[in-house]
Amino acid sequence: MSDDVITTVTGIVAGEFGLPAAGISPDVDLSSLEGADSVKVLRAVAKIERTYDIELEDDQVFGLKSVRDAATLVVATLAEKEPSGGGR
Amino acid sequence: MAEPDTLHAALAAAVRRRPGTPVTFHTGRETLSLGELLDQSHAVAGALAEAGVRRGDRVGLLCQNEADFFRVLIGLGVLGACACPFALPTTARDGYQERIAGIIAAADIRTVVLSERLARLRGVLGSALDGITEVSTANLRGAHADPPATGVTGDDDLIVQFTSGSTSAPKGVRLTHTNVLACLDAIGGGIELTDADSAGNWLPLFHDMGLFGSLAALHHPIPLTVWQPSVFVKDPAHWLRTMSEAGITACPMPNFAYDALARAVPEAEVNDYDLSRWRVAFNGAEPIAVDTLEGFLDHFAGAGFRPESMLPVYGLAEATLPVTFSTLHAPPHADWVDRARLAATGEAVAVARNAPGARGVVSVGRPVARMTVRVTDPDTGVPLAERVVGEVEIQGASVTPGYLRGEQPFTADGWLRTGDLGYLAGGELHITGRRKEMIIVRGDNYYPEDVEAAVRTDPAVHRRRCVAYLDEATERMVLVVESTAPDTEELRARLRARVGAATGLDDVRVVVAGPQAIPRTSSGKLQRLASRSRFG
């Protein structure tokens, strides 16, 4: 998928956590990042929502572990919003 | 007529006074009257009885900030059963399952009620619910037989709060119907609630301030609006606009949230807000910083927020919630003391605010109704004079009868030891720190034992030698490990990740030291306090 989405989400997470994006690999456990807490995670989610104009449910966020998980959720949510090819 | 001694009887009395009082849940955009909420709670009690729940049972409760949280809690109370609210996870970290499994074992829980809105959470729970009867809130609706009469009294446990204690030994704070009603009376009386008030809450309902702040509104009753925590955290400015337009007059928040609001609303936009109706801004559940208080008051003066609306408070799960409230109708105030003498001798010596080394300690006021507070020497238990720091001890109608199991928190003469350190000045309580080595980060408690257990078996840790402690200056947990491996950022990151995964505590400073670096007692036991002075 979606290297662009991964890059964008990594940038958002880096910005909210105050860390260099280069140090955040797509599969690193978000909760292991220096200075991570629940408030920063939610702020990053809010910024992702604004960036892609989507809404993520709290219980979807509970299931996220990494940037890749978040990017996958973004792509799935966008696909639901605007069905591409074939539609429903 | 006798005073009601159960939560459901007290709410029935509230319904008789003002049956149409609205209760609004932002999630699902649901508004119902208090009368409807209570009727539905009785129906839920019938359904829970059909599912096998009996008087004296402890039932796990996993819900968001939604009407079902109250329906199930009240319904369990009707049956004389007891709700054990579970905290929700933030992300899918590994430690969550273990925490839930620990609580289920500690409370001997056989039934868990799971919100139908949280179906996706099932995966995160993994095997934690193995062998447990799961009941979805979707199956508690509709027509059910009336709940059986159980003869429940004020002495029955209504809630067990699991907000304190380590993962390995979670502490279940027992709260009876009588405790809870005393708490709700103390809150309502303490802030002089009237029918003109309206309450708002975005704190999680599994958290004591969120739960009992909300129940105090239902108990009076006054209109209540409940949001998800994420609504506040994602966009504090939008939330502030919504709550002010809704005419909320009373709302509880911790220190960090007042900071977040001041940051979220730019100076130029402050005048667009009308905060003049916000009469009681509870500030509790976290250490209260003088600069946060003053920053908020300055920032929102232009929006009509009155300094006397800010109400620093002190409470804890063992007191159901409230212990002291600062003075209503007066601005908050800080006591300025000599920082060095406070740390060295425990004396709170008043100094000028601009004196070098002055530390501001925010007053949390006087005991609420039917609560008494004393400050004692933590070693001898002897009550101390004013302006001497000791352990805060409490007695009162809302104080827990005890933990479910394990060591009890009481002195021989029946006072509850809070584990918090503070002093009295002019009869007002000032909290200075914690005697226990527990650390509180955004309302969650963490223990050094859990941090150490998370890394002890890591191959890089030499002979399982490690020690964790709280750095009080930064309110941060420090983990020191002995290792023969070189000190690299990679190693520190790995250890930090293990701690985060096991405990949920992410902001840990990791120090990698050589073998034998951690101070020991003569018997070889690693010393936390001595480590603190060696490693900072």
TrEMBL record, chain A:
Domain of life: Bacteria
Coiled-coil regions, chain positions: none
Domain Carrier: 1-78
PROSITE patterns given in the database record: CARRIER
UniProt xrefs under InterPro entries: ACP-like_sf, PP-bd_ACP
Name under which the protein is recorded: Acyl carrier protein
Species in which this protein is naturally found: Actinokineospora cianjurensis
TrEMBL record, chain B:
Source taxon at top rank: Bacteria
Keywords: Ligase
Domain called AMP-dependent synthetase/ligase: residue spans: 13-404
Pfam families in the record: AMP-binding (PF00501)
CC annotations in GO: plasma membrane
Matching PROSITE patterns: AMP_BINDING
Keyword Ion transport among UniProt keywords: no
InterPro entries, alphabetized: AMP-bd_C_sf, AMP-binding_CS, AMP-dep_synth/lig_dom, ANL_N_sf
One example of a Gene Ontology biological process annotation: fatty acid biosynthetic process
Presence of the UniProt keyword Ligase in the record: yes
GO MF term (any one): ligase activity
Annotated family: Belongs to the ATP-dependent AMP-binding enzyme family.
Protein name: Acyl-CoA synthetase (AMP-forming)/AMP-acid ligase II
Lineage: Bacteria, Bacillati, Actinomycetota, Actinomycetes, Pseudonocardiales
